[in-house]
Amino acid sequence: MTVEQLPVWLAPYAIKNVEALMRHPDHLQNIHHMVLRCEKFKHQYEGRVVSGMTFANMANGTFENIYYKDIIDGHCFPWEYYHGVFLDVEYEHIHLSHDLDEIQIKITKISVMGTYCADAR
Predict the structure, then answer these.
(1) Phi-psi bin for 68: left (phi > 0), alpha (psi -120 to 50), beta?
(2) What residue spans of 59-112 are helical by DSSP H?
(3) Are the beta carbons of 92 and 106 closer than 8 angstroms?
(4) Is the dihedral angle over the CA atoms 77, 38, 16, 107 positive or is it negative?
(5) N or C: less crowded end of the chain, CB within 10 Å?
(6) How far is the C-alpha of 8 from the C-alpha of 62, rounded, in Å?
(7) Comparing C-alpha atoms, which of 7, 59, 58 is closest to residue 31?
(8) Could you say which DSSP state residue 68 is in?
(9) pLDDT in tens, 74-112
(10) In what order do the strands lie in the sheet with 104-115?
(11) CA geometry: angle at 117 spanning 111 and 120, to 5°?
(12) Is 94:8 a contact under the CB 8 Å cutoff?
């Protein structure tokens, strides 16, 4: 896989990490797996309305748990999506509640913030 084959939404991330990828060519395979997983996730959830509980479950395994207050207080949430890949998920409030099951949000944008894989020295 070459940088030209990366999806447009991953281009800024790939350009930032070209030097690390050149030093560690084996990381290209890891990046390829990350791209496939992130593309599927982005396609599946961007533009969809989900409950707060679904949103919290999607972020299961992140560096912190998501509580109703986190969703109410913000419009984006970063999480570790897959093997050190960090995504930034932006959303709009549809219906707010103190119960995660009753919260409704629309996921408006999913972007890659970075990864431990390609940043390794």
Answers:
(1) alpha
(2) 68-73
(3) yes
(4) negative
(5) C
(6) 25
(7) 7
(8) H
(9) 999 887 776 667 788 999 999 999 999 999 999 999 987
(10) 49-51, 104-115, 85-95, 76-82
(11) 120
(12) no
